[in-house]
């Protein structure tokens, strides 16, 4: 069972899961209530058919696996917002390490590619 | 003489301190007054910092109390995202609850400190030899711990595919799955041993040996 970010906009109390095909709504309810201690409202499920249309380099059809999606509503007017699990972090490498030398090199290259700032943004097309 | 003057300054009220500092800015040449003014400045800055931090702390506490009363995840997210303005205080209220039994849907995600990291360190998987030394209650608890870890890693995998970002340390999934397999095998060994000792029956489900059409013996 995995929590997934919904593709379509969902109401704030709805959480979306991908569950094994053999699990039912009652199973999902018991699972979340007993193992994760989450108070639940209604649970709805649907089966997503995985495409068999795509072909590989040998022109054989490749089947993507089917999976079941569960839409779980939380009780007691709770809300859930899927968080941003990959925030950008500024990594300061220690001086003298290989990463720092690489970063400096890339920075120098970018500076060389930029046009002369003394021209005031005018492109090189103009002869002067 | 200097010590007593320092003590006197420390006992001053904020307004009086401000006036003393103002005198310092006017530019007094005498040494005694200069030291007094320096201490007054230092004390003022300390007090101002203290007031800033306490007001921040009060604001954070109020928002946290609000969140607890209304049980609002969205407010928590906005607070955590706004924490960049004063990281020193809000870093202490990372996970809202400290005990696992109160966490709920937070357990589908890793510790917030590990979000955005390229690599997350993890230990070796459980071996069958280690698991055989554990009691049945411990194995039961360990199974659910491993299950929750597996769910967390699966959510991370799916989200990394959605965001087109490499999953940090995918070997953790393999380790967890192997540990769970070994746990299952150890538990099966124990049940089989118990069954053989108590009943002497080789197979779990009742049946008989039969030959199928291919000539193989099947229970």
Structure report:
Chain B: It comes from Polypterus senegalus (Senegal bichir). The complex is a heterodimer of chains A (128) and B (219). Helices cover 21% and strands 20% of the residues of chain A. Chain A is α+β, with helices and mostly antiparallel strands and 128 residues long. Chain A is elongated. Chain B has 219 residues and is mainly α. Helix content of chain B is 62%, strand content 2%. In chain B, a hairpin with a 5-residue loop joins strand 1 and strand 2 (217-218). In chain B, helix 1 (2-10) runs parallel beside helix 3 (31-70). Classes of the chains: A alpha+beta (128), B mainly alpha (219). At the A-B interface, strand 1 of A face helix 4 and helix 7 of B.
Rough outline of chain A: elongated
Count all strands of chain B and give the number: 2
**Could you list the spans of chain A in which at least 5 consecutive residues all have pLDDT below 50?**
none
Strand content of chain A: 15-25%
Please work out how many helical segments of chain A DSSP would assign: 2
Q: Largest sheet of chain B, order of strands side by side?
A: 1-2
Segments of chain B where pLDDT lies below 50 for 5+ residues?
83-93
Order of helices and strands of chain B: HHHHHHHHEE
Please give the radius of gyration of chain B in angstroms. Answer: 32 Å
Largest sheet of chain B: 2 strands, antiparallel
The average pLDDT value of chain B, as a whole number, equals 77
Helix/strand-derived class of chain B?
Answer: mainly alpha
For this structure, the quaternary state is heterodimer
**Most residues in contact: chain pair:** A-B, 24 and 31 residues
Proportion of residues in helical segments of chain B: 55-70%
Order of helices and strands of chain A: EEHEEH
Largest sheet of chain A: 4 strands, antiparallel
Number of E-type strands of chain A: 4
From the alpha carbons, calculate the radius of gyration of chain A and give it in angstroms: 26 Å
Distance linking N and C termini of chain A: 65 Å
Query: Which overall shape of chain B is indicated by the principal axes computed on the Cα atoms?
Result: elongated
Protein name (chain B): Large ribosomal subunit protein uL29m
Organism (chain B): Polypterus senegalus
GO molecular function, one term (chain B): structural constituent of ribosome
Keywords (chain B): Mitochondrion, Ribonucleoprotein, Ribosomal protein
């Amino acid at each position: 069972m995995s929590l997934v970010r919904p593709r379509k906009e969902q109401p704030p109390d709805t959480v979306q899961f991908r569950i094994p095909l053999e699990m039912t709504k009652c199973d999902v309810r018991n699972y979340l209530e007993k193992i994760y201690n989450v108070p639940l409202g209604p649970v709805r499920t649907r089966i997503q058919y995985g495409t068999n249309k795509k072909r590989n380099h040998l022109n054989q059809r490749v089947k993507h696996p089917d999976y079941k999606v569960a839409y779980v509503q939380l009780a007691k007017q709770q809300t859930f917002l899927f968080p941003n699990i990959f925030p950008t972090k500024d990594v300061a490498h220690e001086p003298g390490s290989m990463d720092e030398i690489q970063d400096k090199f890339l920075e120098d290259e970018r500076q060389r590619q930029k046009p002369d700032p003394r021209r005031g943004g005018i492109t090189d097309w103009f002869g002067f | 003489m200097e010590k007593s003057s320092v003590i006197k300054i420390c006992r001053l009220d904020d307004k009086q301190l401000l006036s003393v500092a103002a005198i310092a800015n006017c530019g007094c040449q005498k040494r005694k007054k200069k030291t007094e003014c320096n201490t007054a400045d230092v004390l003022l800055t300390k007090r101002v910092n203290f007031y800033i931090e306490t007001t921040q702390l009060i604001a954070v506490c109020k928002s946290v109390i609000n969140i607890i009363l209304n049980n609002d995840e969205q407010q928590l997210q906005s607070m955590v995202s706004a924490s960049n303005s004063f990281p020193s205080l809000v870093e202490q209220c990372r996970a809202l609850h400290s005990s696992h039994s109160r966490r709920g849907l937070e357990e589908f995600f890793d510790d917030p400190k590990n979000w955005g990291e390229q690599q997350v360190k993890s230990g070796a998987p459980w071996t069958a030899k280690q698991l055989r030394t554990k009691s049945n209650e411990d194995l039961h608890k360990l199974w659910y711990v491993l299950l929750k870890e597996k769910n967390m890693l699966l959510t991370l995998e799916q989200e990394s595919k959605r965001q087109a970002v490499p999953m940090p340390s995918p070997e953790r999934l393999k380790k967890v799955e192997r540990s769970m397999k070994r746990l299952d095998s150890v538990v099966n060994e124990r049940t089989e041993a118990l069954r053989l000792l108590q009943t002497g029956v080789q197979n779990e489900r009742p049946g008989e040996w039969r030959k199928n059409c291919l000539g193989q013996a099947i229970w």
